[in-house]
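Page 42, continued from yesterday. The earlier attempt failed because a stray header line got pasted into the input along with the sequence. Redoing it now with the clean sequence only.
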Amino acid sequence: MKLCPTDKQLMHSFPELKIINHIKTANKYLPPIIIGLLVWQYCLPAQIAVTAITILFALSLPLQGIFWLGRRALSPLPLNLIDCYNQLKLKLIAKKIIAENSSEDNKLTFEAFMKIINLAKLHLGDYFGSDDSLPY
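This time it went through. Structure tokens are written below.
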């Protein structure tokens, strides 16, 4: 979750940012909800099975988000992002920030793309994705 850049400009392209926000919100508000469910079960004549299932479901929501983020990080990049990955990598190689023949495995995954975006943001600035060859 810390690897993913948190820029508002990238929010429309990457659903990871929304999932991370949902996980953080769930971690903030789920403990009082679960305590409320336990009090509800104790004070009202509710069935313990229904309460247990509800609590397990509520606890599983952030875990499902974390599981999805892990699977997404290891999934291959779609074709429309490979060009962007290669452009950013070439810019970083031209500025001698990364080696041309790095010893890392060259699998094009979302994790590698997020690492390249973080490096580009750190060394090339906030407008790393802009094309320098445009006349305007």
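Notes: The two ends are 36 Å apart (CA to CA).
Reminder to self: strip header lines before submitting.
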